[in-house]
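Q: Here's a chain of 33 amino acids. Please give me its 3D structure as tokens.
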Amino acid sequence: MLQPVRWSAADTDETIRQVKANNAAGKVVCGWR
């Protein structure tokens, strides 16, 4: 089962932006909370 991606303080702003976009899509497509 896929789960939302987590980020760390070491990640760049761009990486965090991409993770948030991925997680938003996962909420819609997979029903993540």
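Q: Can you summarize the key feature?
A: Residues 13-30 form the longest helix (18 residues).
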